[in-house]
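User: Can you recover a sequence for this backbone? Please restate the input before giving your answer.

Assistant: Of course. Working from this structure:
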């Protein structure tokens, strides 16, 4: 759900699109770390700022035979595959067959497509596969990020090892990706303060005032958070 966003998302938007970056990729060393959710939040915040925004989904698996009428880089047919999202931005999903995968994994082709086929957008958020991409059925995440002006690396706290992070950074560096920074997703790794606040809620029925006081103190403590 993209019902709300954190100040972190706004900071990312101001550090990228508000500083002259038109095309920004978000990637990660591992799947299911919140990349798609972050992309949607970035696109929504950017669109709410009055910027014509496109979210490009490059995370799909190759299909048996994708229709030739669908978007392919440098074919000039991107517009017919764009759909408007109720959240205020447009979406473009890369659908492809196994043979077409190499077209989408060509950073130069993608870069020209973003510049020409999608010239009507002032901000483009690109949702990429994990880096390094280990399955041939997916678009190479490093190549997709290399076609962008900059990339954000999202890591799930407690789930990415140092060696995995190093491997990801090496792959991005080899592809000459402009990595602006690393964002740490704490979604599945709550702070001690959050854990204590959760335990304090158990007292809600017995002593409501004490429960609320303990929760406030736990969450407000810089030491615990």
């Amino acid at each position: 759900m993209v019902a709300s966003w954190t100040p972190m998302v706004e900071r990312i938007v101001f550090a990228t699109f508000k500083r002259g970056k038109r095309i920004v990729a978000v990637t990660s060393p591992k799947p299911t770390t919140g990349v798609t959710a972050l992309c949607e939040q970035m696109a929504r915040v950017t669109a709410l700022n009055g910027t014509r925004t496109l979210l490009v989904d490059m995370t799909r698996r190759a299909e048996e035979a994708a229709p030739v009428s669908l978007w392919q880089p440098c074919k000039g047919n991107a517009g017919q595959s764009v759909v408007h999202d109720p959240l205020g931005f447009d979406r473009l999903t890369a659908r492809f067959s196994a043979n077409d995968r190499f077209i989408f994994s060509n950073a130069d082709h993608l870069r020209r497509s973003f510049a020409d086929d999608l010239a009507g957008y002032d901000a483009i958020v690109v949702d990429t596969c994990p880096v390094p991409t280990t399955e041939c059925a997916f678009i190479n995440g490093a190549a997709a990020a290399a076609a962008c002006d900059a990339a954000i690396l999202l890591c799930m706290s407690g789930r990415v090892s140092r060696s995995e992070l190093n491997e990801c950074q090496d792959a991005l560096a080899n592809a000459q990706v402009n990595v602006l920074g690393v964002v740490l997703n704490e979604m599945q790794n709550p702070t001690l303060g959050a854990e204590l606040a959760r335990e304090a809620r158990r007292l809600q029925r017995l002593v409501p005032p004490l429960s609320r006081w303990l929760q406030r103190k736990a969450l407000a403590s810089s030491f615990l958070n």
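That completes the design. Strands lie at 23-27, 53-57, 82-84, 90-93, 123-127, 150-156, 179-185.
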